[in-house]
Amino acid sequence: MVEKGTMNGVISDSEGRFVLNVAPGATLIVSYIGYVSQEIKINDQASYTITLREDTETLEEVVVVGYGTMKKKDLTGAVKRVNLEESPAVANTSLSQALVGSTAGVNTAQSGYAGEDVSLSIRGTTSFSASQNPLIVLDGIIYNGAMSDINVNDISSIDILKDASAAAVYGARSANGVILITTKKGKTEKPKVSFNMSIGTQSASNHSANYMNAEEYTRRLADYAYQQDLRAWYKTNPTSDVGRPAYPDLSSREANAYYLRSQEEKDSYLSGAAYDIDWIDKVMQTGLTQDYNIGVSGSSDYVNYYLSGAYHDEEGLLLNDQFKRYTFNAKVDTKVTDWLKIGANINFSHRDYSGVSANFDYATKASPLAAYDFDTPGYHRLELATESSMKDPLQYLAIDNSDLRNTLFLTLNGRIDVPFIKGLSYDFNYSTTRYHRDNNSFYPSDVDGGFINNGKAIKEPENENAYLFNHIFAYQRTFGDHSLNATFVYTKEKRWGDKTTAIAESFDTDNLGYNNLGIGTLFTEKSTAWQESNVGLMGRISYNYKNRYLFTGTVRRDGFSGFGSNNKFVTLPSASIGWVISEEDFNPFEDVYLKLRLSYGQNGNQGIGRYASLAKLGMGAYNYDDDRVISLYPSEMANKDLKWERTSSWNFGIDFGFFNQRLNGSFEVYKSHTTDVLVKRTLPNVTGYSWVWANLGGVDNKGVEVELNSVNIQNKNFSWTSGFTFSLNRDKITDLYGDGTTQDLTNGWFVGESIGAIYSYEMQGVWQEEDLYSGKIYEGWYPGQQKFADLNGDGKIDAEHDRKIIGNKNPNCRFSFSNTLTWKNWSLYFMLNSMLGGGGYYMGGNGLLAPDNSSDYVVRLNQPAIREYWTPENHSNEGLALFRNQPISTSIYQNRGFVRLQDVSLMYSFDKKLLQKTGVISQLQLFLTGKNLYTFTGWDGWDPEYTAFPLTRSLQFGIKLSL
Fold this sequence. Notes:
mainly beta, 22-stranded antiparallel barrel
């Protein structure tokens, strides 16, 4: 019990009694977990009896289900909502960041590059070749644009359709799940002005990889020369170390410098540590990030509007890796009459990716002893230390690049509530998308790419266009204990685009760059164009009896231009039932909610090339006399029977809430079987073709998902809530090519095994000199090389007999654990996110542990200093010798499992009573937030999730202001 607008309050005893002194005319706020808060106006009465009613808002919450909405309590499919408007103040800059750890079964990738679109997936892998990305629907319209076009600050909520029944309304495009994004709208009659901003820094996460410094680099070359002598001696099959070559005397710098390959490196080494260059440090930076959002919104009986503008500026981890975005969103809905509503939604995005970043791969290979002038602006070289394979990592900063991308997403909608038929409505949606990209580059003559032909200019304009129509008829009525909701949809979509590439080379001057290709003397031009179309019909019926017994049935028929002439259309049905046990008369617990759900359905996947079913012509060229002649030849075979992949799946779910929803959550078990999986079928050479797309494979998927939410503590000044998600997924190949084939060694596919299975040699350590002396080592192998298990015991290692499944690339399981602690006006939020290995799962080949030690590159390029390489003295059983060019070699696999401190946010909200005195400000919050702050893992090198590049760690300070 709190007096409104003050800190004057008390907590009642176990029977609900309390005493509180307030002045007449005051307002008392009465609240309790699981019940609706009430405001009581105090008069001269001395005592009050207050009865609170149960809070069913969680169950009454309206969820977007595709072509309509439903109350959460009426759902029969696996649908989860992420409410961003009510989420903690975490400075998310992309849709994928907002979804990390948010709900079980949704898998997001992360990146270290500025503005990069990353992948999303739901519930594991169902295909060999087709797309794994879920369908994105923005404000009811299928969205084909880039995720980085969407300003996450405009998003109100995200609804995720995970099972076949829920996603079935989108039919042949829903096998990978559906993500429904709803943007914000006006809520109050008084116009609300909001302003959010954040500014911060980005740097590499705590896991990094070290590369050899000048001393290590130089000593490695000396060790390599020594190990070449060792290897020649090992070939004599010695039985002891008698006669082993002596290690060279390296007591002086001159002796060490002798083994360096270039005079440039020798001079630098003899000059001292001033030339010890850390190239990783030279190409990386601590980037600045800025985000500004302003919005105006309001709502009345006749108009609802939301207008926003935003600017995002982000510097990545590499020099000149930058991303800028301007977005504008206008959303207006108008009630023209009691039966007619019209609206419009405009989303515009301008993205700027201009500039070419420093080359990270070149930096990992560059000599720390190269001579380089870092003090002269713009200085760069083509190659370092006279080594053609050692390119200057900074030279690409000299490339003049402009990469600008504009996207316009426009939606017009209308709704008619038929006056003479209660419950009948018709919605019409029209959307159009216009995307244009100008990507222009000029490579100067002293940069790799422009060196050979004295400069190169490239202009690449690209366009994509789309339109979509939705006609939605709905009928919704309640007849006593019976509720009926029927929806019928007709949808049509067309997309088309074109791209032109114009290249000019051999310039007399660099002054005009790519702005005048005509002054070049060598020209190359090419262009492409494409189009595709979809059409669909969908019918859905939902029935509810006494809020206890629920049923939803859906049928969708889809057509897609990209499939064969014999299979342009497909029909996909689904059905689901629900039983709300807690609504039964025999339920003795008033504070318990329990619902069982069961669903079955079929979904399709059309994520393959739009012309995959057609015969294709390849293009070649040859010289005839003095003329260049273009030739065309058949390159790919047609398949008029090519069709959708079809996924049939079951889902059983339990939704529960205890103690009036103080503890609530869900449990899901699912199993799916995908048939007609799209694969490239190998053809006999006599056909003239190498392969053809065909529907031949099969994949099974099964998994478990758990979500828990709890209110641990809630009183006058302090509250603590928690959230937990857990998911486990297993996939298995059931068929490959429909002809009894059980394995495809080229792709690493095996019937009965996961698509992510790792088929390789089992490394048991490293051969040692004792193995050589005792005769245990296999013929052709030497100390310091990988020791593989001889599976058939024949005393040799070969591909046919000594490979097996040694692990799986997929995680064993995933979980996240979040907590929000609020004390007075302070709020602290943190989340742990994890992908775990164990049992051979989530294994990855770590290229930093087994670098390319062929006889060429081992002396030409720098190498990682993660593990000490093998020498006769250190007897390493993990690091390899420098003469690694062994008969058979593989990656060294490691467990990629990790637990990450994903998000931390500290926020202070100014007291509303204090803000009211300003007469202007209604809300003011300050926050400090961090992402990817620390990763706990046994993986060596860069971040285990990204492996080849650092993950971004960010710190940001921000303000949220409302007027």
